[in-house]
Structure formats: structure tokens, C-alpha cells
Amino acid sequence: MSDSALGPLRERITTLDGQLLTLLAERRRLTNEVAETKIKHHIPVRDVKREEQLLVRLIREGQKVGLDPHYVTQLFHVIIEDSVLNQQAMLAERANPGSTLPLNRVAFLGDKGSYSYLATQKYFSRRPGELLEIGCQSFSEIINKVEHAEADYAVLPIENTTSGSINEVYDQLQHTQLSIIGELTHPIKHCLLVAKSTSISKIKTLYAHPQVFTQCSHFLAELGNVEVKTMDSTSSAMLTVSELQRDDVAALGSEAGGNLYGLTAIKSNLANQKENHSRFIVVARDPVVVPLQVPAKTTLVLSTVQKPGALVEALLILRDNNINMTKLESRPIPGNPWEEMFYIDVDGNLKDGHMQNALDNLRKITRYIKVLGCYPSEEVSPTKVAAASALDQA
């Protein structure tokens, strides 16, 4: 089919795309009105039962017009997630009057194109005010920027589904008075990025952040005799390859980040685990108030007395108060050999009675305990439809 024959079809598709965007914008405005009602009447953000009913109805209606149930489900998972996160952001803003800034100065690791940069863009896209990006070369520099009021917020990677926890960030949290005020999970899609047309067999030197090398260890093993050079950030790796302009060097990073440096991806999906995600935390000088309608997480750091079963005793307090622990991380206490601090993430709001009771009891049995932050949870679990497979065959 010639371009002249495709032209009218493409024009119709372009028109429909524009209409879809207009409808999605209208839907988002309506969900913001829903948020206003929830604020007024103290209604939780999520109504899982209604979401399930909505999705079942949409799957059935989609089948009537020839749309695959899986396609409809995936599409509305994204729409529902967007609605939930926007409503949470609105409620959080109302619960923290005066916290909205005309300019958000945000410190993060690396420069434009790094995964921390992309996470920063994603998180603050839902927040009012302009964004001023402050790239840093180390986690300590990021923390110092906020502590000394040179930045309002910091975005820090805390764990990855492939390489695990980022211990250096936990070590920084031991020594700062900053509070965790938010989180987000960002997909990590590593690509082999080059500045000049080449093939994988020609690559002799590879640049990347150490965490990226860990996450792509299987791919590195396949490459064989390639020199690996670690960089302080993914953006530094991409900048180096861009400046070298050689066909025997490459960087590991995201395709979106590589585009900012004029790099091309010649191989994608390099991580050991194809579902590779990093969790980031957002920290600031002052804590935030999380409305009870919004799903919340609380992060604690504590040290136990030196006796058998001390940690188990602390964890039983969480269980007895029906508090779900989502993460437990231990880190050594500098200067105290064989003693450790425990970082604990739980599903819970500091304003909730169960959390207050648990903290009161933990203070009685621990040597040290500190709340690092209570913040909205941005892990929006997809709406599940048990009958989806049956609908698929209807």
C-alpha cells in the first residue's frame, strides 16, 4: 500500500487519538471532583469492589465491540492507577497547607538521563509548581543539599528487584534528620547504548553504574572479554560514551536517557530479571501529614537490646497490632561491632490507633527507635477480576 493510500487512514487515526486524549483529560477532571467529595466526607481513596465491578463491565462491553479482555484490562489498570495517584496527591496537598511551592528544588543522583532523574520527573509531574533539577555525584551530597536548604527535596533509590537494597542510602538515613515524605516505583529497562553505528561484537569497553552492572550480570557474562568501567551514575556513563564517539564503547542505561545524549540502543531488556523495578524515596526537612483516606507507609529504624529473641519480640508487637511489615533491612552500627540497626517498612499511618499503640510498646522494649517518615503509598496494586479468564471465553 502506497503512502498516498495510507494518508487518509493515518489522518483518521490521528483524529481519534486526539479525541481519546480529550476524553482522558475529561475523565481525570471528573475523578478530581470525586476526590473533592471524598475529602469532604472522609471516604477512602480506593473502592476495590467498585473497581472490580467497573472492570468486569468494561471487559464485557469491550468484547461486544471486538476488543480483547486482556487489552481492556491492561488499559484500565493504567487509567485506574492514574486516578488513584492523582486523588492521593490532591488529598495530601489539602492535608498539608502551605507545603505547595512555586518552585520545587530537587536533588538526585547523576544528571539528566539517569534513572533518578527519570524518577524525579515522574514523581513531581503530579505535584504543583515548577521543577528545578539539581544533579549530584553522591548520596551524601544529595542529603547535604536538603539539610542545608540548597534543595527542598531529594529523590533516593532505596532498593531494586534484581540487585536488592542500596545499602549506602540506608547508611545515610542513619545520620540525617530528614523525613521520608513519599515513594515511587519506577521500571528499570537497561539497554546497550552506543554513539556510533556498531555491533555488539565490536564493543571493548562498557560504562555503567555499579548497581547496573549487578543487575545485568548475566548479559555481561555473555559478552566475554569486555572491559567494565564503573561510573558514579548512569548519566555519567552515557555522557562519557557520547563524548568518546567511538564504535567500540557503550553504556548501560535507559533508552529515554540515552536519547538525551544522542545515543542509540542496539540491544534492550538486559537485566537478569525482565520485571526489573527500583523503589525510590523522597525526603524533605519536614514530615508530612497523610490523610487517613490515603494508604500510607511508615518507615522505622530501631535497635534492640542484646538478648535472644529481642527482634522477634519487636516484630510480634507489629503482628499483635495487625500491622503488615513490608520490608526488614539490617545495617551495622558504626563503632559497635556485631550490633545492627533495623530498618522496617510497614503498611500503616501514624495517625492510626494501631500504629500509635505499636510505637508506644516498641519504645518500651527497644534501645533506640525513630520514625523516619510516614508517607502516602504509591504502590497501586492492579484491580483483580477473578472472572477475567471466563469472560475471555464468553
Count of discrete domains: 4
Assigned CATH superfamily of the largest domain: Periplasmic binding protein-like II
Largest sheet: 6 strands, mixed
Here the CATH topology of the largest domain equals D-Maltodextrin-Binding Protein, domain 2
Helix content: 40-55%
Q: What percent strand?
A: 25-35%
Structural class: alpha/beta
* Total strands: 15
Order of helices and strands: HHHEHEHEEHEEEHHEHEHEEEHEEHEH
What gyration radius follows from the Cα positions, in whole Å?
A: 24 Å
* Whole-number mean pLDDT: 89
Q: N- to C-terminal separation?
A: 36 Å
CATH architecture of the largest domain: 3-Layer(aba) Sandwich
Description:
It catalyses: chorismate = prephenate; prephenate + H(+) = 3-phenylpyruvate + CO2 + H2O. It is found in: Cytoplasm. The chain has helices at residues 3-41, 48-64, 69-95, 115-124, 139-147, 167-173, 210-215, 217-223, 234-244, 255-260, 310-320, 353-365, 388-392, and strands spanning 103-109, 130-136, 153-160, 164-165, 179-187, 191-194, 205-208, 227-230, 249-253, 264-267, 277-284, 296-304, 324-333, 336-347, 366-376. Strands 1, 2, 3, 4, 5 and 11 form a 6-stranded mixed β-sheet that branches. It has a 5-stranded mixed β-sheet with strand order 8-7-9-6-10. The chain has 4 domains: 11-96, Chorismate Mutase Domain, subunit A, CATH 1.20.59; 103-188 and 277-284, Periplasmic binding protein-like II (D-Maltodextrin-Binding Protein, domain 2, 3-Layer(aba) Sandwich); 191-267, D-Maltodextrin-Binding Protein, domain 2 (3-Layer(aba) Sandwich), CATH 3.40.190.10; 296-376, ACT domain (Alpha-Beta Plaits), CATH 3.30.70.260. With 394 residues, it is of the alpha/beta class. Residues 388-394 have low confidence and may be disordered. Strand 1, helix 4 and strand 2 (130-136) form a beta-alpha-beta unit. The longest helix is centred in the first third of the chain and has 39 residues, at 3-41.
